[in-house]
């Protein structure tokens, strides 16, 4: 396998930014599709510069700190310089066909999370007929308005996007072949809604609870059998559930 590869990559999901323990930077993670590599995870990514359903030409390499098969990182040297000049390292090729990508995810859908564990997957898709999105009190919440031992100490502005600064976390409850799951919904768009308008039910207005939904899933780096919901999409057509 070559160390670096030039690929096409369509960004499907961006997760809520997290503070890196390694360099204290704030980065987001993305799930996307590459014709060369399939569905992959890219981490770290800057908060800006790549948009959802955008198709890009980028250079990637395996993430040596992450043994999950689907994990890659940008080969751009700008990642060492707080991603300054990042836009020069990527080529935007227009918006991709969202419906075609959702259809591809449907074809790869698994009957259950336990099946994803058996297959040692770290990215997966599940179709469900019943789903309940909701807000729950965030146990990691830090009131940034009260932080600091001295009056002139303030939390960095970019930290306002991280989960620790949000009073509520978005979650979904849904059924698959294993039964009921209740998972964090780490899609950044819901936290951005909360930041701008508050933790209101309207944040989930595009999730039709009574209809079939396609849930995008990713497991946790340190706990491979623990999963997070990363996105919810309406299927292109109704599918037979739990048939694989």
Descriptive overview:
Helix content is 11%, strand content 37%. Strand 2 and strand 3 (26-34) form a beta hairpin. It has 3 helices and 13 strands; from the N terminus they run E-E-E-E-E-E-E-H-H-E-E-E-E-H-E-E. The mean pLDDT is 85. The protein starts with a strand and ends in an 11-residue tail after the last strand. The chain has 2 domains: 4-96, OB fold (Dihydrolipoamide Acetyltransferase, E2P); 100-233. The strands form 3 sheets. The protein has a 5-stranded mixed barrel.
Write a brief structural summary:
The chain has 244 residues and is mainly β. The chain contains three helices and 13 strands; from the N terminus they run βββββββααββββαββ. The protein is globular, with a radius of gyration of 18 Å.
List keywords for this structure.
5-stranded mixed barrel, 244 residues, OB fold (Dihydrolipoamide Acetyltransferase, E2P), mainly beta, 13 strands, 2 domains, 11% helix
